[in-house]
Amino acid sequence: MSTVKSFRVLPGFNLTLGYTLGYLSLLILIPLSAVFLKTAELGWDEFVAVVTAPQVVATYKLSFGASLLAAAINAVFGLMLAWALVRYSFPGKKIVDALVDLPFALPTAVAGIALTALYAKNGWLGQYLEPLGIKVAFTPLGVLVALVFIGLPFVVRTVQPILEDLDTELEEAAASLGAQRWQTFRHVILPILLPALLTGFALAFARAVGEYGSVIFIAGNLPYVSEITPLMIITKLEQYDYRGATAIASVMLLFSFALLLIINGLQAWTAKRTGRDR
Amino acid sequence: MAGATSMHLGSDHASRFESKAATRETPLVKWTILALALGFFAIFLLMPLIAVFVEALRKGWETYVSALVDPDALSAIKLTLLAAAISVPLNLVFGVAAAWAIAKFEFRGKQILITLIDLPFSVSPVIAGLVFVLIFGAQGWFGPWLSEHDIKIVFAVPGIVLATVFVTFPFIARELIPLMQAQGREEEEAAVVLGARGWQVFWHVTLPNIKWGLMYGVILTNARAMGEFGAVSVVSGHIRGQTNTLPLHVEILYNEYMFSAAFAVASLLALLALVTLVIKNWVEHQAARSYRETQESAS
Amino acid sequence: MTPKLKQSLRRSVVVLSLFAAGSAFAQSTILNVSYDVSRELYKEINPAFSAAWKKQGGADITVNQSHGGSSKQAGAVIGGLEADVITMNQSPDIDILVERGGLVAADWRKQFPHDATPYTTTSVFLVRKGNPKNIKDWNDLTRAGLQVIVPNPKTSGNGRYTYLAAWGYALEKTGSEAGAKDFVSKLFANVPVLDGGGRGATTTFTQRDVGDVLVTFENEAILIAQELGSSKFDIVYPSLSIDAAAPVAVVQKVAAKRGSQKVAKAYLDFLYTPVAQEIIARHDFRPRDPAVLKKHAAKYPAIRTFTVEQKLGGWAAVQKAHFADGALYDQILAKK
């Protein structure tokens, strides 16, 4: 640390870092610590009993399962969409490119009621799906649809820049060595994209696990079937059970933090792989 | 946590790939990918957007307009703008300070600090609202003190602002950090050596380099600030005309069987999202241009 | 700290404290924190009260209203939402205010007539036009393959009354707790969606076309038939249901602090006046005033009802036996 300091020419380190830490503590860390302190009012045994109650465990399964699946779907289709946006010309491309960010800018509650209106059995899409025996609204499938919606931009926007920067020479070299297009993709392009794709996947996953606004309208909210973990927190709150709510919240917080560490690790890997600075 | 929140400066290079056999797929593969990608896009993104506007206009323009000029709607619009107007500048100052510290200096624990800044992104909005109730609620840490001094935080406007600041916390910082890292510190160091003061360095050297990224971060923060539902729902007292933001107003109308009005207000928010995207594209365009210009003048 | 930064910080502090100060001179308003489906009612009662209050020589007064799931709203009041009066649909949401922080006087039931319930309603069935599934009574709801829409009993008073009404019916039919548990288990096995509040359940049933029968408050059922066309739904009255009286109370701790005790009490007293009772009847709740009730009798078919106190030993007992964590309701859902 001291060796670095002697090289420090630029001013403002103490000010900006101090301000950053102060603001971060005041607005994020202290508030979040309140969750753990409130949880600590429960004894360890009680804590374990709350967070491992069968109904709560069922919500973990749905929240994490649906989020994983949604992130996986987004990884596949997001990659295709990014590929189409970078590699092909088609009419309306600029609009498609811009609208990819829609789920990020659209309020989640609006997304929720719009999706419900679409997928209910009398909705535009629901009326065709229902006769096929596919029920979306008010089932776990509805949760999945909402989570796919909110997660899509993350995969597209992490993969897209890497695809754009990709050197065509690599593919040309592969082709001249006799590789099939699929082989080139599988052995040349995919390995380069992989870190970014995983980052996008993890981001979509992290966002989906905590999502509340859009899911609440389209899920059936049925215990053991279509109840998500954030709803469990709300339900506890509405029964004046603050400790129970914070206990489940701490589990989610720890999970989020671990996931973010993984994501930042992945991004460092991406940077190393591609020589990019982001 | 780049991804959706990262500005990307790529312009259309499709022709570069389509012109060469080695980087081109067979038409069959190409059309399959296009069909799948665009079909997915249409079902998951376009349809919900269209649904909002169709539902909003189902009962005609008159209902639409009257839903938007309703006093409760207007006060919700005001509150939403206010929450954004307070939280965006706060996070702007923070974002610049954090990016300066992280990008221009080396120190231990940097990676942890970045992860902590990212934390609000992955914290469930429900928890974001809950924490402020735990701290400022009547039964919370500061509850008794606040109540003695007659200061209202939660279930009033300050709580809504706090929750909004929380959920939009990382975006500007995360936008600026990679940008300032990429630009290095040579220019600033040169300016210091030439005798510039700290504030001058920032104003004349750093700011011109990061202004587009900064603006992009502001746009994203603003969009999130106006659209937040879950966190705000927990700390708003849901008092008509007083502590309802636009997204909450949508929920209320929806619960009052005024579906068209609910979608009308929702469409206003969707419109806001679309305007955000237009500005965002314009900013990216400007940024790409100024980037090209610097490249050209450098060579 | 840079001057600019200081300035912007100072400015935001000023803005924030302005809002904080806003409450200090707000005695010309009172806040009524209420449950989900009473919004239309109070939208009409509030201006009527303001007019009556002024006529009696009072100052200008605005009644603000806040609506949401009953328990969520009570939670907000506990958390510091400054309600002068609270108007709920079930007693536990007022009892909790006695328990936590002593916000409401322990004897709140004694402070206004009819155990502080200015009106009542009951749980009834809303079925699709022509009653295609031939639903007549509670036992029809346990039929295999039928879909019943009910709001979540854990978070909504509406759902809780439905659950208790079914329990009371089964208790009478089977004569045993075990029989009742079995009956209600079967009923809840038919529930495909649990919305957080009464309005959510209505939307699911009417707009999304899910379910064969919606169990909800009578006033809500009549309102749906009016708003959404009586050509689409019929109301069915079961042989026995629950008396869902809506309790009200002054939040004395807040009122004392804000100096609004008098107007808060006057507001709740006003609910019992013929003017307010008439508005209450117009919104399809069952008024307490016998004259008003008689005038609107056509709207309220006779139905045999029981109260929580009569059949189930009071709310405190119900809370413990049914809705606590791991109690009967949780067991019933776990069995699915």
From TrEMBL, chain A:
It comes from the Bacteria. GO terms for cellular component: plasma membrane. Residues 60-263 form the ABC transmembrane type-1 domain. The chain crosses the membrane at residues 12-37, 64-86, 98-120, 132-156, 188-206, 212-234, 246-269. It is a multi-pass membrane protein. The keyword ATP-binding does not apply. Pfam families: BPD_transp_1. The keyword Transmembrane applies. Its main location: membrane. InterPro entries: CysT_permease (IPR011865), MetI-like (IPR000515), MetI-like_sf (IPR035906), Sulph_transpt2 (IPR005667). It is found in: Cell membrane. CDD domains: TM_PBP2. Keywords: Membrane, Sulfate transport, Transmembrane, Transmembrane helix, Transport. Part of the ABC transporter complex (TC 3.A.1.6.1) involved in sulfate/thiosulfate import. Part of the ABC transporter complex CysAWTP (TC 3.A.1.6.1) involved in sulfate/thiosulfate import. Probably responsible for the translocation of the substrate across the membrane. The complex is composed of two ATP-binding proteins (CysA), two transmembrane proteins (CysT and CysW) and a solute-binding protein (CysP). Belongs to the binding-protein-dependent transport system permease family. CysTW subfamily. This is Sulfate transport system permease protein CysT. The lineage of its organism: Bacteria, Pseudomonadati, Pseudomonadota, Betaproteobacteria, Rhodocyclales.
From TrEMBL, chain B:
Keywords: Cell inner membrane, Cell membrane, Membrane, Sulfate transport, Transmembrane, Transmembrane helix, Transport. Residues 77-280 form the ABC transmembrane type-1 domain. SUPFAM superfamilies: MetI-like. PROSITE patterns: ABC_TM1 (PS50928). It is a multi-pass membrane protein. It is found in: Cell inner membrane. One of its GO terms (cellular component) is plasma membrane. Pfam families: BPD_transp_1. The chain crosses the membrane at residues 33-58, 79-103, 123-142, 154-173, 257-279. GO terms for molecular function: ABC-type sulfate transporter activity. Part of the ABC transporter complex CysAWTP (TC 3.A.1.6.1) involved in sulfate/thiosulfate import. Probably responsible for the translocation of the substrate across the membrane. This is Sulfate transport system permease protein CysW. It comes from Azonexus fungiphilus. The lineage of its organism: Bacteria, Pseudomonadati, Pseudomonadota, Betaproteobacteria, Rhodocyclales.
Automatic annotation (TrEMBL), chain C:
The keyword Signal applies. GO terms for biological process: sulfate transmembrane transport. Keywords: Periplasm, Signal, Transport. One of its GO terms (molecular function) is molecular carrier activity. SUPFAM superfamilies: Periplasmic binding protein-like II. Its main location: periplasm. GO terms for cellular component: periplasmic space. It is found in: Periplasm. Pfam families: SBP_bac_11. Residues 1-26 form the signal peptide. Belongs to the prokaryotic sulfate-binding protein family. This is Sulfate transport system substrate-binding protein. It comes from Azonexus fungiphilus.
